[in-house]
Amino acid sequence: MNNQRRNVLKSGSGAAILGALAAAGIIKPGVALADWNKAAFEAKSMADTLKALGTEKPAESKDVQVTGPDIAENGAVVPVGVVSTLPNTTMVAILIEKNPNALAASFMLPAGTEANVQTRVKMGQTSNIYALVKADGKFYIATKEIKVTLGGCGG
Amino acid sequence: MGKPMKIRASAKDGVTEVKVLISHDMETGQRKDANGAVIPALFITEMSATHNGKTVLSGEFGTAISKNPYLAFKFKGGAAGDKVAVSWKDNKGDSRTDEVAIG
Amino acid sequence: MPIPQKLKTLVLATVVGMTPLAATAADSAIDAINAYRELLADGNPSELVAAQGEELWKTPRGPKNATLEQCDLGLGPGVVKGASAQLPRYFKDTGRVQDLETRLMTCLQTLQGVDTKELNKARFGKGLMEEMESLVAYVVTESKGQKIKVDMRHPEMKKMYALGKTAFFYRGGSMDFSCATCHGESGKRIRLQELPDLRTHEGAAAGWGSWPAYRVSNGQFWTMQHRLNDCYRQQRFPEPIYGSDVTIALSVYLAANGNGGTVMTPGIKR
After folding, report:
1. pLDDT band for position C53 (50/70/90)?
2. CATH number for the domain including B70?
3. Strands across the sheet containing C213-215
């Protein structure tokens, strides 16, 4: 609970309180997502981020996949995505373990939208990327390491 | 107001694929300018996409989404001529909506 | 372009930070980088810049309140499709060899009455230069997939080629560098970036054919003038004046060496 309290105190904004309430399981995350989930986006560790997204121990699943290259030539733009073949996947999120804030993005998927969302993220260094999904109300997770190399000429 | 997005939407075998490029700096708030002053965070926090007015995707971004964000997703249905609209808003209150017809 | 075995091994050594390993593992490191580049190719943010450029092209602007739609890039007034694949070229009306950017300067001056002096200061990404970059992105997108086809018959083109070649091998600056120091030998690289040998057809086609490009490292669209300017900066040379003859000459040298190759502009670079 300490961490959630800290988030509320630090920001004091409605969104953070909603996020913290969601994290504490008082209200459903789906409702809190009506506003930007400040608590989740400002959480630093994986554990705190997962909590703020409404789960503590998501199950590892082979039906969830992080898409992306094994090596990124530049950490400023790393193509990554989430694919889930679990029925009724309603939410997907991308987390980067070693970034200052782990959560990069989350998406709500209405019925009819495929659980396949691709985007591009910044990575400060080589890290595990996590795909967190919610399917039939339960959380699942998968991971992939992406190496970030040094660039060449011209920064 | 932001600059125009590039949205491509194509329907095939009952599935519409949407690819979006958004013009946005996505400043993290962790970079410094030439004088050592912190460049304030400026990033998209929320986006949504609709098909003929019905939401097909809603997302929340943090600062780790790359400059000039790219997004690709698919939804069932959609036919040539249907409207796909994408909207975003950032942490400073700027926002933009663009629309294309499915090709 | 086939990658020499030695290079593959070196690349792997960088990735894993140790001595060379088996060739199969080296192949996979190269494959991984290529997979990364392929993933970025679709959805090149240059599209955003090109869209801006197209709007600028078609909007009446400047003291003469005219569009650029009558701009002659070498294939006749108003023809944009395929035009940059055939640049630089000798233009009769100006009596000189021009690259895309100096030709666009001519159009800005003659059609719109714009004073382009500001451009010579080469403050990339700012003011009129930002507009130039957008226009370039628009024009080069319209040549994607075409063959590099530079007409070298005119004596002025031959002169510029010779000047460009001299400039390419000219050593100077505090590091005693020339363009050829990095781009005059096959199989060279900086960290994971292969350095094309711009003396050869393959190298020049790869290099010339993929610039202008979007740089993901800084999120900027770089014109060819910007690319060349930065090469000089890295060589610790004084940076050339925007649009000056030496920059056009180098472009002629690169384009002519790459003649027959494929235009892949706008590129996307790390």
Report:
1. very high
2. 2.60.40.10
3. C220-222, C213-215, C267-269
**Phi, psi (deg, nearest 5) at residue A45:** -85, 160
Candidates C42, C48, C216; nearest CB to B23: C48
* β C267-269/C213-215 pair status: parallel
C98 in any annotated domain: yes
Distance of CA A84 to the CA centre of its chain: 14
Residue A30 has pLDDT above 60, yes or no: no
Rounded-to-integer distance, Cα C115 and Cα C98, Å? 18
Q: How many domains does chain C have?
A: 1
- C231 is a catalytic site residue: yes
When the pLDDT of each residue in chain C is averaged and rounded to a whole number, the result is 90
Structural domain including C221 reads 45-269
% of chain C with per-residue pLDDT over 90: 76
Peptide bond into C212 cis (omega under 30): yes
Q: Determine contact: B38 vs chain A, CB below 8 A.
A: no
Give pLDDT tens digits for B13-34.
999 999 999 999 999 998 888 8
Q: How far is A44 from chain C (nearest CA, A)?
A: 24
pLDDT at C121: 80
Query: Per residue in A32-54, pLDDT tens?
Result: 335 899 999 999 999 999 999 99
Task: Give yes or no for residue C9 having a pLDDT over 90.
Answer: no
Work out the minimum CA distance from B14 to partner chain C, whole angstroms. 22
Could you tell me the domains of chain A? 1-34 (no CATH), 35-148 (2.60.40.2470)
CA distance B4 to B24: 10
Question: Are residues A152 and C219, on separate chains, in Cβ contact within 8 Å?
Answer: no
- A119 shares contact with chain B (CB less than 8 Å): yes
Tell which of B60, B70, B91 to mutate to test the A interface (max A CBs under 10 Å).
B60
Q: Do A54 and A138 contact (CB within 8 A), yes or no?
A: no
Give CA–CA dist C84/C75, Å, rounded.
Answer: 10
In a domain, C13, yes or no: no
A71 touching chain C per CB within 8 A: yes
- Structural domains of chain B, count: 1
Is the residue at B52 inside a domain? Answer: yes
Contacts of C59 (CB under 8 A, 6+ apart): C67
Question: What is the number of H-type helices and E-type strands within chain A?
Answer: 5, 9
Percent of chain B residues topping a pLDDT of 90: 92
This prediction's pTM: 0.85
